[in-house]
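User: My collaborator sent over this chain with a note saying "see what the structure looks like." That's all I know about it. Can you take a look?
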Amino acid sequence: MAGGEKFQPAYVLLGERRLKERAHAARELLSPCGLCPRKCGVDRLGGEPGFCKTGQNAVVSSRNLHHGEEPPISGYRGSGTIFFTYCNLRCVFCQNYPISQMGVGDETDSEDLADMMLSLQDSGAHNINFVTPSHVLAAILDALVIALRKNLKIPLVYNSGGYDSLEELRLLDGVVDIYMPDAKYSDNKVAKRLSGAEDYVEVNRAALKEMHRQVGVLEMDERGVARKGLLIRNLVLPEDLAGSEDFMRFLAEEVSTDTYISLMSQYFPANKAALYPEIDKPINRDDYRRALRAMEQHGLHNGYIQGAR
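Assistant: Without extra context I'll predict from the sequence alone. Here is the result:
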């Protein structure tokens, strides 16, 4: 921070009273459920599982210090990741499908979830990294109230699949420090076939613009660790099914050419990919180079790239 100013996370500045108000508002969205873009309308407060297969409590598959995220997120001590079970997408190629679709994990109440955050902070985590959080926002906010009271004071990372409603994101305004969403597709037909989300493109792009409005371009401290801002992940798929070129154009024209992008090459066929010939293969060098060239052509100069396999 400039001039040696001490950094304070957004939720600390927001304060406990207003954080409680956000938690209450998020919980009200669970019955009938209109939390995520699915708006499936079930009574999650009454124990009825939504499209996401989750009731009012979060299910957690694991929590740990993660050193394999992008450099400003993992830093030199690790990112305090909490992996939530289930998801509001149904990606047929999901590499974490035992967690996201088969339900590997344990139901967790607000006290336990708060203790996970505090334990990760005590272990030296640079941040608390909520992985696949979109369907459990209410539980996260409830737990955050408790954690704040117990002196949680490191940044929050909202690491989502990018299928986030504006209602949800507005509850996070002034709460989340770092957004790290996916931008999976630029074609709704592909999104529907591969992830069961026929409105993914419109929802995702509205979400990316709102995230940028809230936190701006990624900012880092003197050691390169993220403090605030937006970092977008774009997983290159075979045959440009992710529509990376169109996504880069959108970012340049409607968000900012300063936006940080993680252009990822680690796709491999997993889950049900064998049933879909177009993705039943790894990407090749041309797939990745095409996406990288689009990034460069649209003047997007910040981010992280990988080598194609």
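A starting point for your reply to your collaborator: The chain has one domain: 2-305.
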